[in-house]
Amino acid sequence: MTPGDSSRSRAWKENPHPRYWWHRLPGNDYVPSIYSDLSENEWSVLNEWYAETDRSGPIGECALPLISLLYGLVMGNRIGRIAQLGTCAGYSALLLGWMLRRMNARRGLFSLDLDPAMCELSRRWIARAGLQDFVEIAEGSSLDAASIEAARQYLGDNPELIILDSSHEYRCTLAELDLWYAALAPGGLLVLHDVSEFAAGFDVTGEGGVRRAFAEWRQQHPEVETFSLNGESRSMESPRPLYKDACGVGLIHKPQRG
Q1: Average pLDDT of the chain?
Q2: Per residue in 90-149, pLDDT tens?
Q3: How is 141-201 classified by DSSP, letter by letter?
């Protein structure tokens, strides 16, 4: 198998598991660049990752539209300082790590999770992929100021890109936005997954989730550039707009001072 092999993820079109929903959409019988650009070894590792998590979980990786958006941002702009809040099983850490290795951007991803089991699982796959020089899987709370300092120490400066995909709880997300926006480098971007009406149901506290937190934060900071994609989506069966992920995504751009 070589980079660009047309058979790679196309087989998932026939897989009925909910995680493969993107591949079953009309017209999506092709291999997206996030997969076609992987080397033979990288694709083999990702395939093994999918096989293991299909069998035993956990399943909760970011959707293909989001990782593809991040792919364009990171590779198109050589973003070499990334903080990720919420690691889950390591899907995006692997793909971001391969991007960083392609750019030779060492110590480029600080991925934080509160769950020790998820950290252990992700570290195992990062080691399997040979990405230890590019990715740090850190156990800790995204609401702890010490985690922000740990991210700065690892990355060498404030993060240029922050990916928020952690608890999905309203109060935690609102606090994360305040804490981590302050740590974002001027001109940087904060990306939030799960800003839609549909994804508000992921909040176990029932208080409105990321959607409510993002809406309130935007009202409190009218001077900051923000944008929401697919925030009005109410279910996975909703009509698919330009951005296909029913969970939606929010963008916060920090102004460049001076």
Answers
A1: 94
A2: 999 999 999 999 999 999 999 999 999 999 999 999 999 999 999 999 999 999 999 999
A3: -TT-HHHHHHHHHHHSSS-SEEEE-S---HHHHHHHHHHHHHHSPTT-EEEEE--STGGGG
Q: In what order do the strands lie in the sheet with 109-113?
A: 135-139, 109-113, 82-85, 161-164, 189-193, 249-253, 225-229
Residue 192: domain span: 62-253
The angle subtended at Cα 258 by Cα 183 and Cα 154, nearest 5°, is 30
Residue pointed to by tokens 């934060």? 217
| Stated length of the chain | 258
Q: How far apart are CA 12 and CA 97, in angstroms?
A: 23
pTM listed for this prediction: 0.94
What CATH code is carried by the domain that includes residue 169?
A: 3.40.50.150
Q: What angle do CA 174, 145, 94 make, to 5 degrees?
A: 80
